[in-house]
Every structure is written in C-alpha cells, then in structure tokens.
Give the backbone structure.
Amino acid sequence: MDKYKESMIDIIDERILSVLNEDARMSFAELGRKINLSPSSVRERVQKMEDLGIIQQYQLKINHKKLSLDLEAFILLKVFPGRLKHVLEIIPNYKEITEAHRITGSQNLHLKVILKDQICLQKLLDQLMEYGDTNTFLILSEI
C-alpha cells in the first residue's frame, strides 16, 4: 500500500506538471513563484516525479521552418506480410521520421515526417514503398 501512496501525485504536483509542460526550462525558483512553493520543495517534488517515471524527459521544440524544412506529413504504412520486424528495426535510421507509432487497424505504422520539400517526400515514399503500402497526409497547420 505504501508503494501505491508514493506513486500518487497531488494537486500541487499537477500544477507543477502543467507549468513545466508550458516551459520545461523554467528554474525551480520561478516555478515556485508561479505556484507559491519554495524552490527546494519544487525541486523535491520534481525529483520525486522523475524517480517515479512520471516525468520521463524534457524535450526541445524546434521551429523546422526556420531550418528550411517546410513540409510536414503523416504517413500511414501498411507493411508487407513478414516484413514488420525488419521495418521496426530500420525506421529509427530515417532522420526525416520524427515520430513513429505502431497502430491498430488496416495499417501498421503511423509516421510523422519533416522534410525540405515535395521532392524529398517523394524520395522517402519511394524508399518506404519497398516495405509496404503508404498513405500520405500533408500537415497544413498545427492547432
């Protein structure tokens, strides 16, 4: 029962998570000011949530358009029978694929890709078509 109690988070932890979700680089002092808690208490709570695996990582969000990567798309991939294990091993080698999820339904994989232009998308699709059928959706904007 004690282990169960340790893994519970309270309303203060939820507020910390909410603020960190907006700005994960915020100092403990600034975070403490936002939620009316001392920096040492914030640090202890954040450390506890990291130790429990509630906070798994801090991420960097990049504006890809400023790097001339203007095209974003989702690709659904229906892998040919018997090839899924191999495809799961090679997907991390594609730098254009920023997210990859194994999904249920008629397709096996949901991929998010960020590329320079349509020609780069075409080249990537040509490579992926060796492993299965693709269905591509261009991302118009983020909501």
In short: The two ends are 41 Å apart (CA to CA). Residues 42 and 85 are 43 Å apart (CA to CA).
